[in-house]
Design goal:
145 residues, alpha/beta, 5 helices, globular
Length: 145
Amino acid sequence: MFQVAAKYPEEMVKPMREELTSVGVEELFSAEAVDDAILNNDGSALLIINSVCGCAAGNARPAVKLALQNDVLPDRITTVFAGVDQEAVAQARSHIIGYPPSSPSIALFNKGKLVQFIPRHRIEGRMPQEIAGDLVSVFNQHCKK
């Protein structure tokens, strides 16, 4: 298998990564790490497919940061970066069955099964507080209290 070059330089995406890692989100860089987070998890796992686009900056990342203030959270909170971490993103998308590739997007898995997916079209044009409200509702329903 050949290696595909990253679409965006690391120095450009570093602040976008840090916006999530600074609040405790774990970055996944390989297919094995994605599988470990999703499949080898007896609890819940949030997976954010991060992106350089404006709706990631203005909507998705702020929404995730707001939602992480909830009392009930997923057991693992992870992210991959579209256009940069191709292997990890491809593996993440292989677990999001029934939906076309979408970035940014946010998926919640429970015991390895997809229970909620928020694609780009449900992020674009919405306020971070609205998206965070959706996430909090899903956390309260599917994550341990």
